[in-house]
């Protein structure tokens, strides 16, 4: 009788877990097509981008080279879980001075555009901090974001993040770049292509 009660409790807890998975976890298929419980820290792809001032272009048509802050560098590390539409980020900016500036919710983004072109932001990340005028201050931002994404930038009345999925980055990383914008370098303090 005791073993039946324990077995019933385990089955009930298992059913509850399946019926109500936590929001940070999801189900998908892995490799041999067996069901798999995905965590946001299991990535379907990763990107390590070194962003420099020499890669910055402005929004004119056609886009023209507009260098960012001399001596600045950005290390943008992304882990994508396309099953959960989640992107985790670890962003470090070095040699960047002044406050941030952007028409978006934040001034640190992934934009959709090929090398040498400009395009709309698709994901807005928390700006690395602390803000300082001292070039020796290291700015960092670490965390995860899960869709639906919004940027605060409108194109034809629709936010440029609406409908965007991180799987689009995996499908064509060369069509995306990452950057950060400051008051002194509005087109971009640094920029780097994802591929």
Automatic annotation (TrEMBL):
Residues 1-19 form the signal peptide. InterPro entries: CHRD. SMART domains: CHRD. This is CHRD domain-containing protein. Keywords: Signal. Residues 45-195 form the CHRD domain. Pfam families: CHRD (PF07452).
């Amino acid at each position: 009788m005791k073993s039946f009660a324990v077995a019933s409790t385990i089955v009930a807890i298992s059913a509850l877990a399946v019926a109500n998975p936590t929001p940070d976890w999801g189900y998908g298929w892995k490799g041999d097509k067996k069901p798999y419980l995905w965590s946001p820290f299991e990535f379907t792809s990763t990107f390590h981008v070194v962003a420099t001032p020499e890669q910055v272009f402005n929004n004119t048509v056609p886009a023209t080279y507009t260098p960012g802050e001399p001596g600045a560098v950005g290390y943008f590390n992304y882990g994508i879980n396309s099953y959960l539409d989640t992107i985790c980020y670890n962003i470090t900016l070095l040699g960047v001075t002044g406050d941030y500036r952007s028409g978006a919710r934040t001034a640190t983004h992934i934009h959709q555009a090929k090398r040498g072109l400009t395009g709309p932001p698709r994901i807005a990340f928390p700006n690395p901090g602390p803000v300082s005028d001292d070039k020796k201050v290291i700015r960092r931002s670490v965390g995860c974001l899960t869709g639906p994404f919004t940027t605060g930038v409108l194109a034809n009345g629709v936010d440029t993040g609406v409908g965007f999925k991180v799987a689009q980055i995996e499908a064509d990383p060369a069509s995306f770049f990452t950057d950060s914008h400051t008051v002194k370098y509005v087109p971009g303090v640094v920029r780097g292509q994802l591929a």
